[in-house]
Each structure stands twice: as structure tokens, then as C-alpha cells.
Amino acid sequence: MKNRKSYLFDCDHILPIEKLRVTIPRRAVLSFAKEQIQAKKMRQIGIPTYLIDNLTDLETNEFMQIKPVVCKGVKIQIIEQIVCGTPCSGNEPIRLFPIQSLTLNIFNQFNGQQTIAEIVSIIQEETGWSLDKSAAVVRNLFLRLCEVRICEPG
Hints:
It is a single chain. The chain is of the alpha+beta class. The protein has a domain at 50-153: Arc Repressor Mutant, subunit A, CATH 1.10.10. The protein has 5 helices and 5 strands; from the N terminus they run ααββββαααβ. It has helices at 29-44, 60-64, 102-108, 116-127, 131-147; strands spanning 68-70, 75-79, 82-86, 94-98, 151-153. It has a 3-stranded antiparallel sheet with strand order 2-3-4, with no helix packed on it. Helix 4 crosses helix 5 (131-147). It is globular and about 45 Å long. The two termini are 29 Å apart.
């Protein structure tokens, strides 16, 4: 596993995400193209869809209505007290965050049932953080997990 001493996300060190850098492996290009066609068809019949690359461009109200979910085929496992995720098109686990962190509580809310706004409210109540800090932490975790193809908008 790469970066044995570090991990993807830490609630205590939040850096704003301005633009996502999503990479698609060569072997996933065909499935990505199929997903893009499916999304276009859904938009044409009025079903809201989101492009991962454009999530940072959404208005706050629209972003808060997204229901985060773990991508199909992603494997989540614990390795050396770190929660790791392997994207469906990946071979090696990505070290996401320590198991003994608040990040796990937030990640567990990414079940496709709750909006980001609802998750922010839950985290604010659990931690006593301000609304701004709670929203920033949830937003950044979701965006970072989208960037590495662990989560997506539901």
C-alpha cells in the first residue's frame, strides 16, 4: 500500500477543495462513457444528475441536497487501524482515515439515504462544531472520496 504513514482525510486539517482532479484508468474508459450517456438520458427526462468533476461548482443549496453514497463495487476494509477503500477499477487500497476518528462517523452517514445538509446537522450535534466547520468537514470528505472514486452523489 502506498503512503503507509499518511491517509486521505483528517477532520483536524481541512483544506478547501477548489476543483476535483478525477482520473479514470484506461480500463474504465468504456464504462465511464456508458455512464455519461446514461446521465445525459436521465437529464433529458428531468432526473437530476451530477458530474463528479463539477461538484465544486454547484451552488451551496444544490450541493447540500446531494445524497452521498459509496460507489458500487468499492471494497472498504480496515488495515492497520486505518479505514481503506479500493475503487471497483482499482487494485490497491487507498488509506482513507484512521478508524478511531470522527471521520468514520461522517463516512458512515454516506449511505444514499441522507442529504449532505442532514449529515451536517447530525455532525454539528455530535461534535458541537459550528455550522460552518461541520459543513466544511462533510463537504471536503465527500469531495475527497469522490476524487478517488470511493463515493458519488446518490
